[in-house]
Amino acid sequence: MPLWGDFAWSAAFISWVFVSAGVDAREFPPSATHAFYLDGLIADARSYPDTAAFMPHAPTEYAPRPGDLLCSDRSPRPLLHWTHRAADNGRARPMHCDIVVRTAPGVVEAVGGNVLDTVMLTRFPADSWGRVMPAPPGWPPFLVVMESRLGRLPPWTAAAPPATPGSLPAATSAAAPGAR
């Protein structure tokens, strides 16, 4: 029996990661249930497509990148497309999401919580375009890739290049050398 019994803590882990990274609750609504934060992310994407922090994509149509969420539907009757989630909006549904941490030819690597009662890196096969391959028979099907646009939209801008000694303004202090 797993340490936590039947308690599913994977959504709490994903929420903890985003909160710990300083992501505002307006951009990622933390929840102990994947379906609930996905509802918020999908609603924002529909209402504010130009500025939403996350955009939903069908796994067959988008190659995930680091920072994206790769989500599956673990229910007995899985949804066939992320747009069908609107009919369940506000109702819990057994789901699972992992955070994509690396992509390479033929593979998408993602970290998730409560995978065999631990935090685990999973390698998912990808096609030649980088899209995750369909889950094998008996596995929950992938429902959505939530493209993370965190840090790539206003009000955020690209970081300024690091200062170099030649780019710093000249010192204007009259303090003697070695004075504090």
Q: Any idea what the radius of gyration is?
A: 21 Å
In this structure, how is the largest beta sheet organized? 6 strands, antiparallel
Strand content: 15-25%
Q: What is the number of helical segments per DSSP (H or I, 4+ residues)?
A: 2
Shape: globular
Structural class given helices, strands, pairing? alpha+beta
The figure for the number of domains is 1
SSE series: HHEEEEEE
Low-pLDDT segments, ≥5 res: 1-5, 171-180
Spatial strand order of the main sheet: 1-6-2-3-4-5
Number of strands: 6
Structure characterization notes:
This protein has helices at 10-20, 34-47, and strands spanning 54-57, 69-73, 95-104, 107-115, 118-125, 142-148. The chain starts with 9 loop residues before the first helix and ends in a 32-residue tail after the last strand. It has a six-stranded antiparallel beta sheet. By secondary structure, it is α+β, with helices and mostly antiparallel strands. The protein is globular. Helices cover 14% and strands 24% of the residues. A hairpin with a 2-residue loop joins strand 4 (107-115) and strand 5. The chain has one domain (10-157). It is built from two helices and six strands; from the N terminus they run H-H-E-E-E-E-E-E. Residues 156-180 are annotated as: Disordered.
